[in-house]
Amino acid sequence: MIAGALLLLSALRVITSAEDLTSSGQWSGALGAAVPIGLAGLGGLWAERAGIVNIGLEGMMMLGTFCAGWIGWQHGPWAAALAGVIGGAIGGVVHAIATVTFNVDHIISGVAINILALGFTQYLAKLWFGAEGSAAQQAGGNDKQSPVMENMGHFSVPGLSDWLHSIEKHHWFFVSDIAGILNGLVSDVSWLTIVAALLFVGTFFVLWRSAFGLRLRSCGESPVAAESLGVNVYTYKYAAVVVSGALAGLGGAFLAIGTHMYSDGQTGGRGYIGLATMIFGNWRPGGVAMGAGLFGFMDSLQLRSGGPTVHALLLLVAVLLIGLVVWQLKKGKSRQAIVSSIVVAALVAWYLLTTTVPLEFVDATPYVATLLVLSLSAQRLRPPKADGQPYRKGQGK
């Protein structure tokens, strides 16, 4: 499947001359953009596997960015990362108290956290970073951003990066494309990216290969049955939501550390996209990682002003939809096939009649991709059975 996708991308690059599709710069940017989205999605996975819907991921990321900016300019980037984890975890504690202890509707609690986190961070930024004569202001802070923190640094795999770059610049079919993608993944990589990758692996082993994970997931499938087997459901739900907030906070800290400061509006809706990656990934770490990679790729496009690249992707989406039309016809879904065919015709016409796409559409590509992916993957989704359902201790008796 992966080899087929790479061949398709390589062929698309050759046909459309959109060299940025497989360039190391595009994929390096995609990796950096995928990490905060993936961490938010992983946080959502922890909460929902325990039966708690966490729509407050965006607010927890905001708390993470603010705490990272606050601590980072004084004590450095690693302290900033730890502060981001703590800030997000505090948001998780608030969500757990509301949903687990007081049985508040999960959606209402999550939305409240998002609103409160926005107001809280903006107020404290004015109080701590923009206060007249304060040390933070003298160091360059203001009402909208923190002072600059030190650079965490990046690393490249010695020798391999230069070798891959030498192959990439020849623009050979498939070979140079593979080299460009790999070069983007092994060059100028943040140390926090390695931490994020280890967290994905750790999440899989903890939730699917340990007794703790089995008990936690049982709370999301049937808390009454879990309680009957001696599981303290409240404890596991609390633990899951606090970890969820901590992961989202680390995603927010990644944003602040990457730009060397906290700034107002820094999360940019990535918490919501992280929630979408969790759903797209079917509540599994591997699926979340794939979804984060996809949305990170789209996010990187808008950061690089990739009008020609997005234009080339119109053709790719049309080809994929043709495959969907064939599948719908085989399943006897003629009405859906007709609608999909109309969309294919519109995309092909758009591609043939233009040479690029407006910058406004490029900026919207991560959100358009979110809607498309969720609509196409809705048929195969299986959330935890008790996800979002209220639970009170002893209700099965």
UniProtKB/TrEMBL annotation:
Places the protein is found: Cell membrane
Keyword Nucleus: no
Membrane topology: Multi-pass membrane protein
GO CC annotation terms, alphabetical: plasma membrane
InterPro entries in the record: ABC_transp_permease
Entry keywords, A to Z: Cell membrane, Membrane, Transmembrane, Transmembrane helix
Transmembrane segments annotated in the record for this chain: 27-45, 52-73, 79-100, 107-125, 189-208, 238-257, 310-329, 336-353
Gene Ontology MF: a single term: transmembrane transporter activity
Tree of life domain: Bacteria
Main location: membrane
PANTHER family membership: GUANOSINE ABC TRANSPORTER PERMEASE PROTEIN NUPQ, SUGAR ABC TRANSPORTER INTEGRAL MEMBRANE PROTEIN-RELATED
Protein name: ABC transporter permease
Species of provenance: Streptomyces triculaminicus
Lineage: Bacteria, Bacillati, Actinomycetota, Actinomycetes, Kitasatosporales
